[in-house]
Each structure stands twice: as C-alpha cells, then as structure tokens.
Specification:
Number of helices: 13
CATH architecture of the largest domain: Sandwich
Largest sheet: 11 strands, mixed
Radius of gyration: 24 Å
Shape: globular
Structural class: alpha+beta
Number of domains: 3
Number of strands: 28
Strand content: 35-45%
Helix content: 25-40%
Length: 414
C-alpha cells in the first residue's frame, strides 16, 4: 500500500506555513517545494489571503466533517484505526483550518491525489530532433468590455480606440496608448474610467507604454491591469501586477509633476513619482521590489512602510527585509538574458520553465549545485539546458501524448 504520510505531513506544513508556525529551516524547505511545484502556488496564495481562508472555512462548515475524513482516509489508503479525526485535530492547532484544507484538497482533486491517480501516457522526447523554442513577444489584451485581443498574431497598427485613447501595436512587442482628445473632452464622456489588462503567457513577454508615458516591460506568465481614462477624478495612477515587470515611470508632463504612481502586487503596494524599478511577485507570500533609479516607498497599509534607495531590494513576506543586490542580475530578463549568481536548481529551472513553457519535476535527490553565469534568452531550450550538463546533472524530457505541445523536464540526479 502506498505510504501517504508524506502527503499528510505536507498538508500540515502548509497550514503551519500560513499560520507562521514553521521554523526557519522548515520555511526555507517549504518555499523551495513551492518553487518546484508551481501548480501549488495559486492554492497557497488564495489561502494566504484572509478572505481565501474564510471562504474555505465557510465551505467546511456546510460539510459533514466525519464523513469527509472517512472518505479522505479511504482515498489515501490510511487504515481507520491508524488515524482518527479527533487524533489529527488534537495534533494540529488550527483544527478547522486543517479540515478545510483537507476538504478542498479532496474536492478539487488537488496535487496530492491527482499525482497518484492520474498517470498520463508519457514518451521520452529528444531535444536534438525537435528543440523547444525560446519565448518571444506574445501577449493578450483584454479591453474594458471583456473583448480579448491576441496581440501575437496581430499586424502592427491600430488595435482599438477607447474613451479618447488610441491603442496601437508597434514593432518589437510594444503596445502604445495615445491621447486623441483633450482632458476636457474626456470629461464629456461622463468621466468614465476604463481598465484594460495585458497578459503574457508562459514563453511570452511584452512592453506597454501607458497613457501617462510610463513604460512597463512584462516578463513571462504575468499580467498588468491599468486605467486607460484620463479622467480628472483619478487621484493616483494605480496599476495591478501579477508575475514580474520592470517599470520606468514618467514623472512630469508639460513641466507639471504627475499624480503618484502606485503598483499593487501580491501582498504589498509600491508608491513612486518617477523612477525605474522591478517587481517580482511570482512566489506566493513574498514580493521582491528592486530599485534602480529614484526612490520608492514599499508598504502594506496599516502594517509597515519602508523607503528603499537605488541598488536595494525589499522582500515583503510576513514583514519586510531590505538588502543590497546586483541590479543587473535582477533585470537581466528585460535585457534578453538569464543571469545567475549563486542560484540553486529551483531558481534556474523556474526561470527556464516560464520562458520555454515547460513543466519541471524532480526525481530522487535534488541537486545542490550553485549556478553562475549568463545565457541569452533567444537560445533554444537545448542550449540553455547545457548549464545542467556542465554541472553533470542528468535530466530527461517527457511528453504527454494527450498534450504533446507541453513538455516536462525531469531532473533526475547528479
């Protein structure tokens, strides 16, 4: 019978992580596990938000807990006498929260169970015969009316017009917003505030020039929501980011200082007037903000705020930490490079997986190598993955015959 105790331990660890009960070394291990299993990150991120946990608890309150636990035991292959609901609840501090997570895991066919129940037909893929191409300028634009435009295949030129704004696709993966009417004219449009969202898939990147002239570079698997209206009632320039982006914020217009520019991302807000900075919010519960020029204030309303200087990076998780970094490494992606400085295997493979649009799995002991160097992002995957061969790390490429376009890199061992 399959030993499922590691699965139960991981569920327990998830709850202890969310309730800030993990020791330092346990939390580091859990973060590495999340990086290696991106399919878990969205679930953990949802639970980390107060309303997310509240929703799970509300779901649990309408369910027969004893019956659900019995079903869970059967699904995991745990003998009834081995563990009981009361014993599990006695061991874990947040009884309702643990039960809620178990029920959600069970009801959604979450990773723990699907890994054992779903066994797709796999074949080994030879990169020498058919390589995985590098990512490129790919994005989707979702207008305020819900219309979704695929920018990748669209010819250069006008894309749409909205509330006095002309939206134009330019060469080299750029989207330009231009004001086609005066601010007074836009007021005649009832001061309507419209929001667009630009999203990049795995293997995509894009640049958008916002209505105020600010430039934003979006990394792979990211999205940016922003207002397209120039209505006067907007007291600030606010955007919402998921994933990673580099910002060059416009400070003045016609000699006048513009309204504050605020980026809401993950569990923080960044406020600027004019500056260059990078925000990485790929990892649940931790957002990194790196400043290259100017000054920004990183805050979580009512909890903390910190002003960081050029060359510094803030890490926002349960609190905030600030330290100096090599900014060229942080923004290497924007300049067409992977750049690693003492990076572990998870950091390297997570960047590769987003850019080349493949999944990553680890089999056996995870290599402890550290990686340094630069790789051009326009190279095919076989070239980039040579960094593993140089470190004598073995891997194979698998293909699910039902989804042949989606590859899986399995790291085996040194």
């Amino acid at each position: 019978m399959q030993d499922n105790s590691p699965l139960l331990n991981r569920a327990e660890q998830m709850l202890r992580y969310l309730s800030d009960e993990l020791r330092t070394e346990e939390e580091e291990e859990f973060r590495l596990w999340l990086k290696a299993n991106p399919e878990q990150q969205q679930f953990v991120a949802r639970l980390s938000r107060e309303q997310g946990m509240e929703a799970e608890l509300q779901f649990m309150s309408t369910t027969d807990q004893e019956q659900a636990w019995t079903a869970l035991q059967a699904q995991l292959g745990i003998p009834q006498q081995e563990k009981s609901l009361s014993k599990v609840f006695h061991l874990w501090k947040r009884m309702l929260a643990v039960a809620a997570v178990f029920l959600i895991l069970m009801s959604t066919g979450f990773y723990f169970y699907s890994k054992f129940n779903d066994q797709p037909e796999l074949s080994i893929h030879d990169l020498a015969k058919e390589d995985i191409k590098a990512g490129g300028n790919k994005a989707y634009l979702t207008l305020s009316n819900g219309k979704k435009i695929v920018l990748t295949d669209l010819e250069n030129g006008k894309v749409a017009e909205q509330s006095g704004m002309s939206i134009t696709k330019m060469a080299d993966g750029k989207l330009l917003y231009e004001l086609k009417e005066s601010e007074e004219d836009s007021q005649k449009n009832n001061g309507e505030i419209l929001y667009n969202t630009i999203s990049t898939p795995a293997g995509g990147q894009y640049q958008v020039i916002l209505p105020d002239g600010s430039r934003v570079w979006l990394n792979a698997a990211s999205s940016l929501k922003y207002a397209t209206s120039m209505a006067k009632q907007l007291k600030e320039r606010r955007v919402e980011l998921t994933g990673e982006a580099y910002f060059e914020v416009s400070k003045t217009e016609n000699g006048k200082q513009k309204k504050p520019f605020i980026v809401a991302s993950g569990n923080q807000e960044v406020e600027v007037l004019g500056t260059h900075f990078n925000i990485n919010s790929y990892e649940p519960n931790q957002t990194a903000t790196t400043l290259l020029e100017g000054k920004v204030k990183v805050n979580r309303p009512g909890v903390f705020e910190k002003v960081i200087a050029p060359g510094e990076q803030s890490l926002v998780g349960k609190g905030i930490e600030v330290h100096s970094v090599d900014t060229t490494t942080v923004i290497a992606w924007k300049n067409g490079l992977f750049k690693f400085e003492n990076a572990n295997i998870y950091t390297v493979m997570n960047q590769f997986s987003r850019w080349y649009n493949f999944e990553v799995a680890y089999e056996g002991k995870v290599p402890v190598n550290r990686f340094n160097g630069e790789i051009y992002r326009n190279l095919n995957a076989s070239k980039a993955l040579k960094i593993l061969s140089y470190a004598k790390i073995k891997f194979r490429v698998e293909v699910d015959k039902n989804e042949p376009e989606r590859k899986r890199i399995v790291i085996t061992s040194n």
